[in-house]
Amino acid sequence: MARTLGDRLVVNVARKPGEEQILDLVRLFNDNPNRIIAVAATVGEAGAPNTCPISLIYAKDEKTLLAALLRNSATSANLKRDGRVSLEVIQANDVVVGIQGTMRLIKDPMDFSEAMALWEMQVERVKQDTSPAQRVTQGPASVPRNDKAEAFEKAGFAELMAASR
C-alpha cells in the first residue's frame, strides 16, 4: 500500500501519528556500496514501461542521487528522451520504497569505464510501498562475479563519490 513519505531521502516511516521511525536512504546507499539493488522504471519510446536493475548508486545529499548506467542501454535512451524515473528499493527490515524523480545526464562516458554514463537524479517523491499482508525480511543480495567485477564496482563507486563533491 503506497504512502507518500516526503520529497527527501531521509523520511519518517512510522505509521502512527506522533511516532518517529527514521529511514535514512542516504546512509543505506552510501554505507552499502553497490549492494543496494534498485529496479529503475523509465518510459519507453512507445510509452510502455521499461525496467532494469541498477546498483551503482550514491546519494549526493537528501535530494540528489548519482547513478552509473550503461551508456547504450534502453534505460539511458529513455532517460535522454524523458528524464522521469522511479527507483524501487526492497531491503531487509521491511524497507520497501519507491523514489521518484527526474534524471539528467552529467557525464558520458565516465572515466572508470567507456561503457558507463553518469546520471543525476533529483528526488521529487519518496513513497512507502510495504504490503499490509507481507513483511519483507530480506532484499536482493549480490556479490561480484570475479576480481575484475569487484575492481569495476569499486572504481565506479569511487567516481560517483568524487562527482558528489
Task: Give an overview in words.
The chain has one domain (3-163): Electron Transport, Fmn-binding Protein, Chain A (Pnp Oxidase, Chain A), CATH 2.30.110.10. It has 3 helices and 10 strands, in the order E-E-E-H-E-E-E-E-H-E-E-E-H. 19% of the residues lie in helices and 41% in strands. The mean pLDDT is 96. It has 165 residues and is an alpha+beta fold. It has helices spanning 25-30, 74-81, 147-163; strands at residues 3-6, 10-12, 22-24, 38-43, 49-54, 57-61, 64-70, 84-91, 95-107, 116-128.
| Mean pLDDT, all residues | 96
CATH C-level class is: Mainly Beta
Give me the secondary-structure category: alpha+beta
Number of domain modules: 1
Give the helices and strands, then pairings:
Layout: E1 3-6, E2 10-12, E3 22-24, H1 25-30, E4 38-43, E5 49-54, E6 57-61, E7 64-70, H2 74-81, E8 84-91, E9 95-107, E10 116-128, H3 147-163
Antiparallel strand pairs: 1-10, 2-3, 4-5, 4-8, 6-7, 7-10, 8-9, 9-10
Output the keywords.
Pnp Oxidase, Chain A; alpha+beta; 165 residues; two-stranded antiparallel ribbon; single chain; 8-stranded antiparallel beta sheet; globular
